[in-house]
Amino acid sequence: MERLYIFLLLAAGSALPCLATNPKTSLLYPYGETQGDSENPVADDGNSPEISIQKPFSFYGKKYNSLFVNNNGVISFGKYISAYTPNAFPLKDGIPFVAPFWSDVNNKVSGNIFWRQSEDPVLLSRFAVDLSRYHPEISFIPTWMFVATWYKVGYFGSASKKVNTFQAILATDEEISFIMLNYADIQWTTGTGNGGDIHTGLGGLPAQAGFDSGDQKNYYNIPGSRTPGILNIKETTNVGEQGRWVFQVDTTVTGVPTAKSDCLFK
Predict the structure, then answer these.
(1) Beta-carbon neighbour count of residue 137 at 10 Å?
(2) Which of 97, 118, 226, 265 is paired with 143 by a 20 to 30 Å CA distance?
(3) pLDDT tens digits, residue range 130-151?
(4) Residue 66: partners with Cβ closer than 8 Å, 6 or more residues away
């Protein structure tokens, strides 16, 4: 019951005051070539190769030993995702995945998609400290992390310079698992294949954010998903810090409440 309580607490809208990110401190964890990251191929609807991970990641009661980083804003387990249309959760295909910003990304237009796994004590400590700031009652020190960053990526059919930068982090101690979603800059929501405007990247069917266990029962949609409001996701949070969402995802939970706060979509 303790883990169930913690999960619900993290997934629900936080009662913490909504704080703007310190402009002197990047919301994103370190990424890019200087960090030794690998990079996805430049390809529309592309993906990484299957990545064997150093520690098993528990996601809704199942442990996974590999994953894919997909260009269209998704980390998936068991199979890559080439779909560019953000269908509503829960999905029927049974593929579990984390979606920081599922939409029609095209890194042939612009941008880079970086990823790496890490056991760096400095990075692991940063995650533990961040979590303790939001929930001091939780004692969690990860032994492994995976950092995926979509940096200044454009959208399919773009005739503009609009780009998005966002990040997904997986962290585990091999028993308890968390995901952290960070949003640095969101300028577009929709590629032209989903009805978006060629010049603005808006309209049509906008992006989806959240996660899906693949069992058609356990999933979470960040409020504003698949609506124009997702453009403002960098101003929302469930931990009191704008642009950041954190969830515990190791234990099966049916339904996730979304209490309203100043940082949640209404």
Answers:
(1) 8
(2) 97
(3) 999 998 888 899 999 999 999 9
(4) 50, 51, 52, 53, 77, 78
pLDDT at 160 over 50: yes
Q: How many residues belong to the chain?
A: 266
CB 235 within 8 A of CB 227: no
pLDDT tens digits, 6-39: 344 444 443 344 554 444 358 999 999 999 999 9
CA atoms within 13 A on the CB side of 29: 31
Tokens of 139: 């004692």
pTM: 0.89
Pairs from 224-233 (Cβ < 8 Å, separation ≥ 24): 224/265, 225/86, 226/86, 226/88, 228/189, 228/202, 228/203, 229/265, 230/101, 230/186, 230/189, 230/206, 231/186, 231/188, 231/189, 231/202, 231/206, 232/186, 232/265, 233/101, 233/183, 233/186, 233/209
| Number of neighbours of residue 83 by Cβ within 10 angstroms | 16
Mean pLDDT of 72-77: 98
* Residue 32 CB neighbours (<10 A): 14
> Is 58 within 8 Å of 104 (Cβ atoms)?
no
